[in-house]
Design goal:
Blueprint (H helix, E strand, L loop, with lengths): L1 H18 L5 E2 L2 H11 L10 E9 L5 E6 L4 H11 L14 E8 L3
Length: 109
């Protein structure tokens, strides 16, 4: 009986911890437009189209903090972080401290 209660308690705790995990929110169009302006035109050698997913948060000062750039291209990773990190967002709908996830596609012009 004790083993059954222990198993039930462990199962309950594990489900509770999975339910409390925060999933990244998708970026709204206003925020996406503002980020696109910050990124501007790519200033590195681009061989075709690069796609990635950027995860970031906004700190208490309203600054973007890039958490991850899901790309194997080091130049793209550096470019995104240099252009976005610590730039202030003016969109009032942004929730500070929330993790956002934004797909990003850079096309050779």
């Amino acid at each position: 009986m004790k083993k059954l209660v222990l198993l039930f308690a462990i199962t309950l705790i594990s489900f509770t911890s999975f339910a409390n995990e925060t999933k990244p929110a998708n970026v709204k169009s206003e925020l996406r437009t503002e980020i696109a302006k910050l990124l501007g035109k790519a200033n590195f050698d681009l061989n075709g189209t690069l796609t990635t997913v950027v995860e970031f948060t906004v700190n208490s000062k309203g600054e973007i903090i890039v958490l991850t750039v899901n790309s194997k291209n080091a130049a793209l990773d550096k470019y995104v972080k240099n252009k976005l990190n610590y730039n202030v967002i003016t969109d009032k709908a942004v929730v500070k401290g929330k993790v956002y996830k934004m797909p990003l596609k850079i096309v050779k012009a």
